[in-house]
Structure formats: structure tokens, C-alpha cells
Design goal:
Layout: H1 2-23, E1 31-33, E2 38-40, E3 42-44, E4 47-54, E5 74-75, E6 109-115, E7 123-129, H2 148-154, E8 157-161, H3 166-170, H4 186-201, E9 207-217, H5 219-228, E10 239-243, E11 252-253, H6 254-267, H7 273-276, H8 281-298, E12 312-313, E13 323-324, E14 327-328, E15 336-341, H9 367-378, H10 382-392, H11 407-420, E16 427-432, H12 451-454, H13 462-465, H14 468-488, E17 508-512, E18 517-520, H15 524-530, H16 532-535
Length: about 550
């Protein structure tokens, strides 16, 4: 205990010296001592920024380990390499993508944003985990993944990180020898290694190692839940925020993951893992794509999204599936925020092509065409579905039912109530419903549309910037909820309507829209009609 106290005191002293120099404007290049060596960042309008700090190193198909120490001051003013992956999606008005990232296998690096305005080592730490279906993505994939605004306005420390993906992060070679026992979960072990690094170093950057919040979107949200199900990760985080992280393929049973590995070796024409380790990434990645395609053909009964690279239930690192029957096998003592967007993937094809023929343009359809589509989709349930939508969203045109997401939203409700069975730790549910005026609002509240708002970076994306003062207000409200939760485990604050936690029998949703407000689950009846399996166990007393 005494050693820990001395270490924390030393970190405070370093932080005080750093912020003292930065605050008076005489020192624009802050230097911090880490366990690996000194790192130098830069000051961006009262925020100290450190990019590309190596938190670990790793050999191909092997677990991460501590990075080799360095004697000189490492310049950390540019982003590091991102994990090798398929070509980056081109930027658009909806998804402002950083297309300049360099890929490389030496990709275990992280970025830190922290305020210089006070000398403290007790700021909440928010660790962002990017999405990308375990195949692609990075700490800089979306231009709004910039932590400066949150650090500056809400006095939190923001961390984003890269880790191994696809065939390098989740190829399960465990059948080929004990040295590969962890190979199916290397991407998750990379994230855990980053959390261990933060535990030892973040105090020197003004952060509290005993107050770390994980937040992630899509597969980033699944990574958050996977860490919650990994016993070896307990104690390295204290709160979680799961954003749209509920799609299929959350994890792989080991028989399937080993089969993917065997077929990948076959497709790569390699004799085994040793030879596979020498093959260039492009060759290896395309071999793995063909392998996954073959496995999907072998199992036509499985949804295509269920066979992919994902964390492996190996009985050790991930002992059990995150969900089994009606139980959730995760850390029971962690406060949770979980939610999704109104449209999620239903407008996805519109993001790159507003004239996409595969998506109905609901506002150009006649009433008869809308009615015909309702009959086609809902059959005998049509009248009940229309009534349920009208009761849930009385201010929305009935035709928006055609674009409403039900799959992700119903899974959010299911998972939230599984979490609530733990009883002690609070669970908060949200739905993001704001619509940008870009392209006449055709993309609606699409998947990822909340990202500029909870990072308080609405001006960095064209679709959110187009919302003007309305978007600016929502950005401030939503980001304050996220940082308040990171600070205390409770998202309530002085500028947001009171957000009630859910309980068994009592469900509430914070609706983030032009007018943010709390409701009971407005769409539960709709989910019961359209996704009955996902919400069958939810019974409310406050409907």
C-alpha cells in the first residue's frame, strides 16, 4: 500500500510540473515519464495531446507483451500505425473518415487528450473502443474520435487505441499447439494490455486509474461486453457505455473458430502456423475471406454474420458466451449505459449514395405505395403494428415505420434487462433519434450518427454541423451525460432531464433528439410484435 501511495504521489508531482509549465504558455511540448520511457506531446488550446504512444509489442499470432523501453524522449505528436485491414471506407458527409492512416503490424499504440488547466491526477478516464466488425477500424477512423473537446470542456482524460484485427487478432490456431492457445483472442488481450498500461501510467497524464470508463460503438460495444465477460479484465475498468453493440457474431464457438483457421491455412497453401506467420497480410487476408466463405457454405443454416472473426469462447480468456439463455455472463458490479439509434442499418446504403435504389425513399412514396409496403412486410399484423408505432411515436409520420430499426433496439432492451437482473449496478437506456437536414433527412438517425454528439464534436461532421444551433445544443447535452456518467456512474447533470435507471418491471429510455426527454419504453409493444423473441421476458409495471 505504501509503495502504491508513493507511486501516486510521484505521478501527481509529475502532472503538477507538466501542467504548471503548459499553463503559462512557456512550454508547448509537454514531456511525461511513462514506464516505457519519456513521451513528448503538444498543446492544443489548453489540452495536452499525446499520439501514437506504444503500450505493448507483439509477434504475429502471439500474445502482447511490454514494449521495449527507450532511453530518449519519444516524439508522440502523430498518430501511430493502425492494424492491417481492408481498404478504408471513403469519406462522406455522413462518415467523415480519416483516409491518411498508415497500416502496419506494429499497431499497439494509443492516444491521450488531457486538460492542462489544473494539476490533478484524479480526472475520470474514458477509453474509446472503435467499431468495425473485428475486421477493420482504428482509433482515428472517424474524424470525430478526437478527445480534445471532452477534455477541454468536461475535464476528463480521453484515450483511443489501436489493436490487432481480423486474421491477426482473432485467428484461432489453438489446435496447432499450446503456444497458440490465446491466438483466437489476441485482439482482446491487446485491449487488456492497454488497460494495464493505463493502470500504471494514466495518473501521470492527470487521469485516475481507479475511475476508468470503457465506451465503444458497434463491435466496439461488443468488445466492451467481451471485456466484461473476461475474468482477467476485472479491476481494469469501472463503468461501461455500449453503443449499438448488439449485432450477430458477438463471439465464436471454438469448433467454428478452429475450422476457420484450418481453412485459412489451406487457402493460403501453408503447411501450418509457422509458415502462415511469414505470409504477407494481403495474401493472408484474402485467404481468410475465402475460408470464411467456405465455412458459411458448410453451414447454410447459420446466418452469414454469425461466421466471422470475433472473440472466441475458449474456456479460458473468454470462459463462457456473453449471453446464455436468459442470463448474461458479465461483471456484475459495473454501471452501464446502453442504447442505439432510431434507424441503425436501415438507411446504411444511403450514407454513400443518396440515390441508392435498394432503399425506399419513404417521402417520395405515395400513400398507396406505403400501404402496399406495410401489407407486404406485416401481413395480418399490419393494423396492430401501425397502431403500436402511432402510440410510440405520435409525432412521427407513419411511413417512418418502414425505416425504423427493430433488431438492434429490441436487443438493447433485452440486454439492458439482463444487466438489470444483477440488481446492484445501475443500467441506463437511450435511443438517439435526431435527424440531420442533409439530403432532406433521408438517412434519418443512422448507425454512427450519435458519434459527433457524444464526443462533443458536432462541427467535425457535415451532417451534424448542418443542424446548427439545434445540433450544438444536443451535442452539449449528450456529451455531458457521457462525461457525468464517467465521473460518477450516474449520467444526470444540470442541463439534462432526469434520466432514470431501469429496474426489473420498470423501463425508461432517454430520447436524444431536438428535445431530449425521458420516456417509458415507448416502442415495447412494437418490439413485441416484430421481435418477440428478443423482448419476451420484459414485463413492465410502468407502461
Amino acid at each position: 500500500m505504501k509503495i502504491q501511495q508513493l507511486a501516486k504521489a510521484a505521478a501527481v508531482a509529475i502532472a503538477a510540473a507538466l501542467w504548471g509549465c503548459a499553463g503559462n504558455g512557456s512550454y508547448d511540448h509537454p514531456v511525461v515519464a511513462t514506464t516505457g520511457g519519456h513521451v513528448q506531446g503538444f498543446i492544443d488550446d489548453s489540452v495536452a495531446v499525446f499520439k501514437g504512444i506504444p503500450y505493448a509489442a507483439a509477434e504475429r499470432f502471439m500474445p502482447p507483451h511490454e514494449h521495449e523501453k527507450w532511453d530518449t524522449v519519444m516524439l508522440c505528436t502523430e498518430f501511430g500505425d493502425i492494424a492491417p485491414q481492408p481498404p478504408v471506407q471513403s469519406s462522406s458527409c455522413y462518415i467523415p473518415t480519416d483516409t491518411l492512416a498508415h497500416m502496419g503490424e506494429d499497431c499497439l499504440n494509443l492516444n491521450i487528450w488531457t486538460s492542462t488547466r489544473s494539476a490533478t491526477s484524479e480526472r475520470p478516464v474514458m477509453v474509446w473502443l472503435h467499431g468495425g466488425a473485428f475486421d477493420y477500424g482504428s482509433s482515428r477512423q472517424h474524424l470525430t474520435f478526437d478527445g480534445a473537446s471532452l477534455a477541454r470542456t468536461d475535464d476528463v482524460v480521453v484515450v483511443t487505441l489501436n489493436h490487432r484485427l481480423n486474421v491477426f487478432g482473432f485467428l484461432d490456431l489453438s489446435a496447432y499447439g499450446p503456444e497458440y492457445a490465446a491466438s483466437g483472442n489476441l485482439g482482446m488481450l491487446d485491449i487488456l494490455q492497454a488497460l494495464k498500461w493505463l493502470k500504471n501510467n494514466i495518473a501521470a497524464f492527470g487521469g485516475d486509474p481507479d475511475n476508468i470508463t470503457l465506451f465503444g460503438h458497434g463491435s466496439g460495444g461488443v468488445k466492451v461486453m467481451t471485456l466484461m465477460a473476461m475474468p482477467c479484465a476485472r479491476g481494469y475498468y469501472h463503468k461501461v457505455i455500449i453503443q449499438s453493440g448488439t449485432l450477430e457474431g458477438m463471439y465464436q464457438p471454438q469448433d467454428m473458430s478452429r475450422r476457420i483457421a484450418a481453412l485459412t491455412i489451406e487457402e493460403a497453401k501453408a503447411s501450418g502456423p509457422d509458415e502462415l506467420a511469414k505470409i504477407p497480410f494481403d495474401t493472408l487476408w484474402y485467404a481468410s475471406r475465402r475460408a470464411i466463405g467456405r465455412l458459411r457454405a458448410e453451414h447454410p443454416e447459420a446466418a452469414s454474420g454469425d461466421i466471422k472473426f470475433a472473440p472466441v469462447v475458449d474456456g479460458n480468456i473468454l470462459p463462457r458466451p456473453i449471453f446464455s439463455d436468459s442470463a448474461v455472463n458479465v461483471d456484475a458490479d459495473v454501471p452501464v449505459i446502453i442504447g442505439s439509434t432510431f434507424a441503425e442499418l436501415t438507411t446504411r446504403n444511403l450514407l454513400q449514395n443518396p440515390d441508392c435504389p435498394d432503399v425506399p425513399h419513404i417521402y417520395s412514396m405515395t400513400d398507396d405505395e406505403v400501404e402496399a409496403e406495410f401489407n407486404k412486410r406485416y401481413g395480418a399484423k399490419k393494423d396492430d403494428v401501425e397502431l403500436a408505432f402511432a402510440m410510440a411515436y405520435p409525432d412521427r409520420p407513419i411511413r417512418e415505420l418502414l425505416m425504423m430499426d427493430t433488431k438492434v433496439r429490441s436487443l438493447v432492451l433485452r440486454i439492458a434487462h439482463m444487466f438489470a437482473q444483477r440488481r446492484d449496478a445501475p443500467v441506463y437506456v437511450y435511443l438517439f433519434s435526431w435527424v440531420s437536414p442533409v439530403n432532406d433527412g433521408s438517412a434519418m438517425s443512422f448507425r454512427c450518427s450519435e458519434l459527433p454528439f457524444m464526443f462533443n464534436n458536432y462541427e467535425l461532421a457535415e451532417f451534424s454541423r448542418a443542424g446548427g444551433a439545434d445540433a450544438r445544443r444536443l451535442s452539449r447535452i449528450m456529451s455531458r451525460c457521457w462525461t457525468s456518467f464517467a465521473r460518477s456512474g450516474n449520467p444526470n447533470n444540470s442541463i439534462t432531464p432526469f434520466w432514470r435507471r431501469i429496474n426489473l418491471g420498470y423501463g425508461y429510455t432517454m430520447i436524444f433528439d431536438s428535445e431530449t426527454h425521458l420516456e417509458t419504453y415507448p416502442d415495447l409493444r412494437l418490439m413485441q410484435l416484430l421481435e418477440p423473441e428478443n423482448v419476451k421476458d420484459i414485463e413492465l409495471n410502468n407502461e
